[in-house]
């Protein structure tokens, strides 16, 4: 008996884990749709270019994509090319896995000045994401401020402080590498409103900052000797590791390092100053009373020509979808009959790549309880709809062509040379 026809909107980790879980539970055709011609979402466009080991997870997703019952349709934007209503009419099951691809903005005076960027656009720029290749941030400054205390903030300061030799095994586009190498950046400031105990970065990422050839990490704070607070055993251990790593930075040989990374804790951005472009930023010193963050009234100023905020993400607005507080309105993964959500759009932008696996299993369980067999022909109707609207969609075979081309054109030891525009991708696939 044929299972329900399924479409997954979004081909990042949550989309692929959902497709995998459904394929194991149901005898269903599963279609994965993405607005880009390429699959893998944040793995391709968000994971730092020097973290190639993390990107290897795509080998697992490729196996899922090649299952007989799974089909990939790239270069189709749901909500624009095809409406949510249209897609729901032709499939028994629709799973929303679109993630959170836009930046939370710094809501302070001066945040619209030139030289202020969100992490999604800045990371997209140095990752060769088609949406951001023409961003052209001006890196002609000695001082850079990155607001945020998580792994994304660490990625940004690491990429900006590595030498070209350290980036040799990455897939950073040439334009970004050249721009970073030519820049006079000397001082990077990673600034967080709370302290080192509350910081969200993981220890592996933090430790990397102590091994940079040309950048010295400096902690501008007397670090606590012990962790005080109501933490689980695991969290306590992770915080202690981070504190140990931060303390170890003071032992690093200081000679011959041209760049400095300043960890500034307990600093809240309150105003960005400049005429047309950013010239400096004011921070207010904060303190913690219990779990409450309090202002002290003490103001500090950092001169800088570039500010990147890494303070979280929110989803794109999609016509026909109710989004509030950064998630789609859902009940533990169910939006409506035949309509489900997985990943960041379901629960907000938290966790690591593997966290999405549980979401996929949850949705597959819900679907297998709600549906037994197929009522709508899904894929057949989607192909007809794409034809009738004269849309150009890419297949997984097309992606393999792009993938192979990028790998072939790389200069060793870089793993690939990314194609940077959608037009070039479609031309390569003769679409």
Written overview of the protein:
This protein is α/β, with parallel strands linked by helices and 431 residues long. It folds into two domains: 210 residues, NAD(P)-binding Rossmann-like Domain (Rossmann fold); 204 residues, FAD/NAD(P)-binding domain. It is 32% helix and 21% strand. It is built from 15 helices and 19 strands. The strands form five sheets. The protein has a six-stranded mixed beta sheet with strand order 3-2-1-4-19-18, covered by helices on one side. A hairpin with a 3-residue loop joins strand 11 and strand 12. The longest helix has 16 residues. It starts with 5 loop residues before the first strand and ends with a helix. The model has no long low-confidence stretch (mean pLDDT 97).
Briefly say what this structure is.
The chain is α/β, with parallel strands linked by helices and 431 residues long.
Q: What is the averaged pLDDT score?
A: 97
Q: What portion of the residues fall into strands of 2 or more residues?
A: 15-25%
* Rg computed from alpha carbons, rounded to a whole number of angstroms: 23 Å
Largest beta-sheet characterization: 6 strands, mixed
Distance between the termini: 35 Å
